[in-house]
Amino acid sequence: MGPGGQLGLRVSSSIAPTEDGCCRGLQGLELWGPAVNWGSDHRLPSAAACCASCKAMCTHGDCRCNSWVFCGDETRCGHRFGECWLKKQKDAMAPSVIAKGDDVMWTSGLVFGKGEGIVGLETNLGTIRIQLLPGCAPHSVDYFIEVLGLRNCAGCRFYRAEGRGNLWDTKGEHINNVAYGPPYALLQGTLEVDGLPFKERGKEACPALRRGSIAWVGSGPEFLVSLANHGEWKEAYTVFGSVMPEDMGIAEEMALMPTSTEVWSNVTVKVLRDPVYFKVKRSTSSGAP
Question: Label partner for 122 (CA 20 to 30 A): which of 66, 71, 78, 81?
């Protein structure tokens, strides 16, 4: 793949999670829960439109709707074709599921309000909080919900760490007329839990990587945290979340840890001499568990 600072260093807070243009759900999933808008009286042309109608009920981070259910297969749905049910889950990170599988005709998705959908990668350096993006990467968010239910992430770790060097500034902007690496301004690790086979996922939304973006390498379970804006990688990676801006200092500190140089498929990389293991836990925008 083309794939410095330290803790306490002032780094750009311009990074922010965004789902502009992203409104996806999971096919073969029917979420349950109290309806705030009945599908029998609310029909729309697509799952994306149903998702957007749920997002429209979020104002200033307060979401009256945090989940939606749509029937988009005219043959299977029959008279229910086009129904868009808007619902309010008691806990959007532990949604109520009534049916899941290839035989389910519904498509469902989640919408996170302010302070929702945040997971923490808890390391010995501190906790890196990630705002998950269910509209861009619903399959990836579904995996995190599964991992949280296991209450462990044995084997999850960072094993590669490369700072920005003199190639990108503190805002993640590439400096003109210099190379794009090495180093490549990223952290890399794995989210595969020991004893739980990882199901490879196809690409979801692949916007350009920005400073703070967190994305799968290939179809996972390897992932990366970008320490810079990597427009040169085009739209190659599924982005499933964004590091909270105030936690980027922890990522920058990890990039300063001792490494060894290796060559992977003709690419020179820096591998941590001591991998940084982490636990995956629910978190909030304030950092409280």
Answer: 66
Rounded to 5, what percent of the chain is helix, strand, coil?
Answer: 15, 35, 50
Q: Tell me: pLDDT of 6 over 70.
A: no
Whether the ω angle into residue 34 lies within 30 degrees of 0, i.e. cis, is no
**How much is the pLDDT for 21?**
72
Q: In which domain, by residue range, is 261 found?
A: 118-282
Mean pLDDT, the chain, rounded, equals 89
| Residue with the two structure tokens 């990597």 | 230
Looking at the structure, tell me whether residues 123 and 217 fall in a common domain: yes
Give the pLDDT confidence score for residue 13 in this predicted structure: 39
36-54 tens-digit pLDDT: 999 999 999 999 999 999 9
4 has pLDDT over 50: no
At residue 98, what are phi and psi to the nearest 5 degrees? -95, -30
pTM of the prediction? Answer: 0.88
The H or E element spanning position 223 is strand 222-226
Q: Are residues 102 and 57 in the same domain?
A: yes
Asked, for residue 278, whether it belongs to a domain, the answer is yes
How far apart are the C-alpha atoms of 270 and 254, rounded to whole Å? 12
Q: Does one domain contain both 224 and 151?
A: yes
- Residue 100's alpha-carbon distances to 31, 97, 103, in angstroms, are 9, 7, 8
Is there a domain that residue 20 lies in? Answer: no
Distance CA 197, CA 260 (A): 29
- Our measurement of the distance from residue 249's CA atom to the centroid of its chain's CA atoms, rounded to an integer in Å, reads 19
Q: What type of residue sits at position 255?
A: A
Counting the structural domains of the chain, the total is 2
**Residue 198 and residue 126 share a domain:** yes
